[in-house]
Design goal:
36 helices, single chain, 522 residues, mainly alpha
Length: 522
C-alpha cells in the first residue's frame, strides 16, 4: 500500500504522541521528503515516554528501526544520549544502536564522553566501554583526535601494559596533530620524559639545517598545535631568545596559526628578523603573509608591497592577493606614487598594471592620473586586463590612440571598449571599422557595423570585393552602404562583382539577393 505525503500529514495531525503503533505504521509509509517531521515526532514520543515512565511504549518505539534512525538523524547529542541510556537496559537494542550510530554525525566516543561527564551515568559509560570499546591503537587515536579527556583518562593506567614505545609515540603525535590539549595534558603528566628525550621525530622539514636541532617544539609548530605550544610555553616559561628562534622557524616553515600566536606576544619586524622578507616571498601560498600583513604597521606593510613589485622577486601575485583580501588601501597606492615622485622615476609596468586593476578603491583615479604613470603602459594594462573604469579614466585625458592600441581593443573582444573610445571622441567610427576589417576580425566588424551604424567607405567595399571577403561584403550589404563609386565604372553591382572578384556564381547570386533585400544607394 502506498500513501501520499498529504495523507501522512493528515494522519499525523490526529496522531496522539503515545500511539507508537500508529507512529510505526506512518514511518513505514513515509518517504524521504517527510523525514524532518518524522524526526521531530519520534524524538517527542521518546521524551514523552521517558518522562511518563511508559517503558513498554518506549520499547515499542525504539525497536522500530525507522524510529531509531529518525532520532539519530536529529544529530542532537542530548537526544542520542537519552536513547543510549534506555538501551543500556536492553543489550540487543544497544547492539543495534552502536551499529547504527556510526552512520550518523555523533560518534560513540562523544556519547561515552558525555556519560563520563555526569556522575549518574558512569555505570552506563563503563558498560558501553567494556562491551564495545577495544583497547587498540586505532581506537586510542580516535579518542585522542576527538580530545575526549574523560574517556582517555579511563585508559591511561592501561597504556604501559597494552602498548609499546612506538604506539605511545603515535599517541603523542596524534595529540599534537589534532591539537588535543586535554588529552595531551594527560600524556604529558605521565610521559614528559618520553616526549622530550626520545627521538619522537626522525627528521625535520627539508630545509631544516640539522635534524639534531629539530626538537619537539618544532614538531608542535609544524603541526600548528597552538594550544599545546601555549601550554608548554607557560609550563616551562621559555626565555625570550628561545621564542625568537621559534618565531623565525614558524615564519620560515609557513605556519600561519603559530605566526599569529607569536605576533600577539612579540613585536615581529624586519629589523629583528633580517631574513623575514626572504621567507615571506618564498612561500607558495599567502596564509602567513595574510596574518603578518594584518598585524604589521603601515611602513612594514609598504615594505612587503614594494618587495613584491621588485623585478628580482616577481611576486606581484602577492599584492594582487592582498588587494583581493581588501588589505591594500588607497593610502598604500598614494604612498607608492609619492615614493616614485621623490625618486623622480616612472612606475614599473608591474606597478602600473597593479594600480590599473584597483579601480574598486574609492578615488583611486587620483593615483592613476599621477605624473609617474606611463599612460601608454597603463592603457595597455587596462585593455589586457579588461578594466573598463580605468580605461575610461585614462582616455578622458585624450591620449593618442595609435593602431597598436586600437588593435588591442578590437582583439580584446570587448564591445564596451568601443563605447569608451567613441564617448571620448578619440577615434572616428570609420577608422575602427577599417581596423576590424584589416585584422580580419569579422565578429567585431559585424558588431560595430550593426551597433554603431557606421557607413563603410568606398575603398573598404572595393577591397572586400577584390579580396573576395564574402562574409565582410555580405555584412556590408545588409547595412545600406553607399555604392556611388559604381558610377565611376559605369556598371552595376553585378557587373562589378564579375569583373573584380573571384566569387563563384552562387556567391554572386547570394550577394545580389542580399542587396535586393536591403535598400542600397547607387
Amino acid at each position: 500500500m502506498s500513501c501520499s505525503n498529504e495523507l501522512i500529514r493528515e494522519i499525523y495531525s490526529y496522531l496522539p504522541l503515545d500511539d507508537s503503533i500508529a507512529l510505526r505504521s506512518c514511518n513505514r509509509m513515509l518517504n524521504e521528503n517527510f523525514r524532518i517531521q518524522t524526526t521531530e515526532l519520534a524524538s517527542k514520543c521518546m521524551d514523552t515516554y521517558m518522562k511518563n515512565g511508559e517503558y513498554d511504549k518506549l520499547s515499542d518505539l525504539l525497536n522500530s528501526r525507522v524510529s531509531r534512525t529518525r532520532i539519530l538523524e536529529k544529530n542532537d547529542l542530548d537526544t542520542t544520549l537519552k536513547l543510549f541510556i534506555y538501551a543500556c537496559e536492553n543489550t540487543s537494542l544497544l547492539d543495534l544502536l552502536v551499529k547504527e550510530v556510526s552512520r550518523h554525525e555523533i560518534s560513540l566516543n562523544e556519547v561515552i564522553e558525555k556519560m563520563l561527564g555526569e556522575n549518574c551515568l558512569i555505570y552506563h559509560a563503563r558498560l558501553i566501554i567494556d562491551r564495545y570499546i577495544k583497547l587498540d591503537k586505532d581506537t586510542m587515536i580516535s579518542i585522542i583526535s576527538g580530545n575526549f579527556k574523560l574517556l582517555f583518562q579511563k585508559f591511561l593506567p592501561q597504556l604501559d601494559n597494552n602498548f609499546g614505545l612506538e604506539d605511545l609515540t603515535s599517541f603523542i603525535q596524534a595529540a599534537v596533530e589534532y591539537d588535543s590539549l586535554d588529552v595531551f595534558r594527560l600524556l604529558f603528566s605521565k610521559y614528559e620524559d618520553l616526549i622530550f628525550n626520545s627521538k619522537i621525530l626522525v627528521s625535520g622539514p627539508e630545509n631544516t639545517a640539522q635534524d639534531s636541532d629539530y626538537s619537539f617544539y618544532h614538531y608542535v609548530i609544524i603541526k600548528e598545535a597552538v594550544q599545546i605550544f601555549d601550554f608548554l610555553q607557560n609550563y616551562y616559561e621559555l626565555e625570550h631568545f628561545a621564542l625568537l628562534e621559534y618565531v623565525d622557524f614558524s615564519i620560515r616553515e609557513n605556519c600561519p596559526l603559530m605566526v599569529e600566536y607569536f605576533m600577539k606576544m612579540i613585536d615581529i619586524n624586519f629589523e629583528t628578523f633580517p631574513l623575514l622578507h626572504i621567507y615571506l616571498l618564498n612561500h607558495d601560498d599567502y596564509e602567513t603573509i595574510d596574518v603578518m600583513f594584518k598585524h604589521f604597521d603601515f611602513l612594514s606593510q609598504m615594505r612587503i608591497i614594494l618587495l613584491s613589485f621588485d623585478a628580482r622577486t616577481s611576486r606581484t601575485d602577492i599584492n594582487e592577493h592582498l588587494f583581493d583580501k581588501h588589505l591594500i588601501t588607497l593610502e598604500h597606492l598614494k604612498t607608492i606614487v609619492r615614493i616614485n615622485q621623490k625618486m623622480n622615476r616612472k612606475l614599473t609596468q608591474s606597478e602600473i598594471c597593479f594600480i590599473v586593476k584597483q579601480h574598486t578603491i574609492e578615488d583611486y583615479k587620483v593615483v592613476l592620473l599621477s605624473n609617474v604613470i606611463d599612460f601608454d603602459v597603463a592603457i595597455e594594462c587596462a585593455i589586457d586586463n579588461e578594466q573598463f573604469g580605468p580605461l575610461d579614466h585614462l582616455l578622458s585625458l585624450k591620449p593618442l590612440i595609435d593602431d597598436h592600441k586600437l588593435d588591442k581593443i578590437i582583439n580584446s573582444w570587448q564591445p564596451f571598449f568601443f563605447v569608451i573610445l567613441l564617448k571620448n571622441n578619440l577615434v572616428p567610427r570609420e577608422r575602427i571599422l577599417e581596423r576590424c576589417y584589416h585584422l580580419n576580425n569579422f565578429e567585431m566588424f559585424d558588431y560595430f557595423l550593426e551597433t554603431h551604424k557606421v557607413r563603410p567607405s568606398s575603398d573598404l567595399i572595393k577591397s572586400a570585393i577584390e579580396n573576395s571577403k564574402f562574409k565582410f561584403l555580405k555584412s556590408i550589404l545588409k547595412h545600406s552602404p553607399d555604392m556611388a563609386f559604381l558610377r565611376e565604372y559605369k556598371c552595376d553591382f553585378r557587373q562589378y562583382l564579375l569583373r573584380h572578384s573571384n566569387f563563384s556564381q552562387d556567391k554572386i547570386l547570394e550577394l545580389l539577393n542580399v542587396m535586393k533585400t536591403h535598400k542600397t544607394k547607387q
